[in-house]
Amino acid sequence: MGKDVIIACDFDSAEKTLAFLDLFKDKKPFVKIGMELFYAEGPDMVRRIKERGHKIFLDLKLHDIPNTVKKAMAVLSRLDVDMCNVHASGASAMMKAAVEGLTRADGTRPLLIAVTQLTSTDQTALESELLIKEPIKDVVMKYAKNAKDSGLDGVVCSPLEAAAVHTACGAEFLTVTPGVRFADGDKGDQKRVMTPEQARLAGSDYIVVGRPITAADDPVAAYNRCLKEFVS
Ligand code: C5P
Predict the structure, then answer these.
(1) pTM for this entry
(2) pLDDT tens digits, residue range 88-135?
(3) Cα-based distances in Å from 169 to 129, 140, 150, 154, 183
(4) What is the CA(125)–ligand 1 centre distance, in A?
(5) Rounded to the nearest whole angstrom, what is the distance from the C-alpha of residue 208 to the centroid of ligand 1?
(6) Is the CB of 101 under 6 A from ligand 1?
């Protein structure tokens, strides 16, 4: 499994997304399509980006009863995406159903990763609203292990957690990490960040980078800088 940079295409229309992707002539970046773009433009957006030769991480974070997730995953698998995800809090039955739904007749399937705890959930919310008393770090590791035991390929996590996830779940278990910023860049609303190089040293398998590339004066140069720091 090669390390790669995934660009978060957080745009609200096909026009903006395709104009952005038109900038890339040589290498076709791995692209993340999230809820905003998917809900705005639908599955056709996935097909159009796929046709242009990009790999796609469809970041829809499914969380429902196992049967519903299984059937929805079968549809996403037919879209021929390369990676998709669920919430680990849907528990093992749901995660196993997701794997089943994703698996095609020939045995192949997109990579499936789990969101452990959203980074917007802090210890206070965990305890006072979700009534989970354990330290959030332990919750993240337990959810990662549940995901692994359910047959998933990895988790979305902070690059700061990547090493611990690999220790708990093995080197092959993928860590897909947002929260990446250049050393000389704006942090924006991300609080706990690492540079692409630090993320590589921490053991991240894929970094998800949005605004440092999409909002850069020269997005192609910013992408190449990420690749250089993270992959080489
Ligand atoms: O623009 P930025 O680099 O902050 O984008 C990061 C991407 O990763 C966004 O699409 C964001 O929704 C996603 N993400 C995140 N933190 C998480 C999970 C997903 O930033 N914990």
Answers:
(1) 0.96
(2) 999 999 999 999 999 999 999 999 999 998 888 899 999 999 999 999
(3) 28, 12, 12, 9, 30
(4) 20
(5) 7
(6) no
